[in-house]
Amino acid sequence: MRAKPLRTSTSTSTSTKPNTDTVPTPTQQGRRFGRLRAIAVAAALVAAVAAVPLTRAGQPAVAAAAPHDVIANLFMWPWPSVANECTTTLGPAGYGAVQVSPPGDSISVSGHPWWEVYQPAAYDLNSRMGTAAQFASMVATCNAAGVKVYVDAVINHMTGVNQSSTTSYGGASFTNSYSYPTAGYAYADFHHPNDLCPNSDMTIKDWNNQTQVQECELLQLADLYTEKDGVRTKIANYLGGLMALGVSGFRVDAAKHINQADMAAILAKMAAAGHVPSFYAQEVWPGGSGNLAPSAFESNGGLLELNAAFALKNAFNGDIANLSAWGSGLTPSAKAATFVSNHDTERDGSTLSYKNGTTDTLANVFLLASAYGTPAVMSSFTFSSNDASPPADGNGFVSAVGCGSGWECQHRQRAIRNMVGWHNAAYGSAQANWSSPQSNVVGFSRGSNAWVALNNSGGSVTYAFTTGLADGVYCDVIHGDFSGGTCSGPTVTVSGGRATVAVAAKDAVAIDVNARVGTTTTSPTGSSSPTGSPSPSASPTATPAAAAAFNVTATTVTGQNIYVTGSIAALGSWNTANAVPLSAAAYPVWKGSVAIPAGTSFEYKYIKKDAAGNVTWESGANRAATSPVTLTDTWRDGTAQVSFSAYATTVWGQNVYVVGDIAALGGWNTGSAVALSSASYPYWTGSVSLPSGTSFQYKYIKKDGSGNVIWESGANRGATAPATLNDTWRS
What we know:
The chain is an alpha/beta fold and 731 residues long.
């Protein structure tokens, strides 16, 4: 949401070159806002939570005082996809939480723009992203994977009174004339002209006027009368019900438009029922003074620190050396939820976004390296218009996530994913050893636990940095995965606390104490530490053993054999000395089975060992399964195939190529573009091999024999290896 009028630019980019411009501001009819009025009873209500270790006024800060605090913001992901991501990616990588989109029932309108979910029709949990049962299952699955769930809570308003649709995704009964029987709201539960809002048309005319901002309607969204105890109770019951399912915290939409006393009363009602969120970040847009200033909302919890995100964009479009004191003068770190972009700012261009490619990645590396705030990594879906729906069926229900097929999945990029483990290793250590050898190049440490260098310039830089780390050889987690004491990518040698490092243009290098070559960690994925205590299913029980059969295709050299190891004792508890040997009788398929109690969930990976005990880990994230199971896998050597198929008609002499932002796709140089085959004309096909997990942007071009180039229109496309891409030329 926004606490100011939206700009109304409606232009869209149709450039004939790679699109690095920001996109226009969304029309955003699907948003919100609230009210403000001092009510003296708030202090007494808040006292109900005095026994809990909280911050000022008894409300939680943004960050819990524990490691693993990084949030993956999986915007508009459906619940089964979120659950799978918690198990396969977020937990193993060390993410502490996942932020999910509003789970309540919402209006359904023509075209199904993303903002539908910000126009609630009821508080039951059947939504665009899945059913109530799927939501509950997702929360339980994520919690079991060591990943907390934070919900985007829309509690300031209901649907827009300007909407004609009375259809919702979950079948709620409502009209757009202040009647929401399923939610339990009637006409008197909303603000109307001359009760508190002074404007007869209910619009906010003065954005510096507290009464108008908090008592009138934003974008004609039916504004709840949160002064009333009945309204507060319904909101508290909704949020408390989510916590009863296992939700740990909230991002509160349009919090600037709900009076602080009303919010405190809602929180106190929740606390009285035993529901105190560990994370509570309020959306309060900058601007205004007095009770409209962001700092005036800190008494109820944390804040989305938008000014910090704006500062990141300015620095990465200018000189990142200016970030040495990033966060100074803003919301206190313990109350600041930080990010490079969110679903609003990536659309209005006020921050960086996935459309900025490597610059966006580099900014996220800095975000995770900084000691300021609680960081959230935005993971977006591809959009070419402001109101665009995520991938969905004809009725608007969101489709399963396929990274690279309409979903950006920034949180999976190796540089970002492994920096989560780096962030966990650095947790609690202050920024130190800041250096900037030239414009747009910086290096700094987090105490003696971790060190990073970022190069936002156009050329490679080599410099002797002070790292603060003990002498040794460390894995560069930006470009390699650390597991079993070895690194799949380049290493950095620290001697006398210093390291001479070459940092490529628009790139970074990062090392930490949990990724020191020659040492092992208890978890083989990236540089992250274990993600919590074992699942109850891994504890001794009377459950009978069942077979987990392993079949992996892998080639070896003389003297090497294949083993499987994993997170449970039957698989060696990640100790390579206790790994389970597999048989080569059907080489190159290696086979074996292990007795594991039925219903046991576990993670595993394959390794190669020789007679001398040298170990090579396969690349990629931990695999996961539940016994009994028969697994058919292929050894992952770090490379993956990306297949392109583009439907495009041409004239005689023209051919179709693909070009992108990485070297394998020409680095946007049309002279180095990858030629596609016309054997299946009008489908042009081809493939490239990339390191697994590589995210890239690309576009198709047409070239003739004279070298004339025609770019397809629209925004850059995006994908992550491996991927099978089926596209149509955009004219």
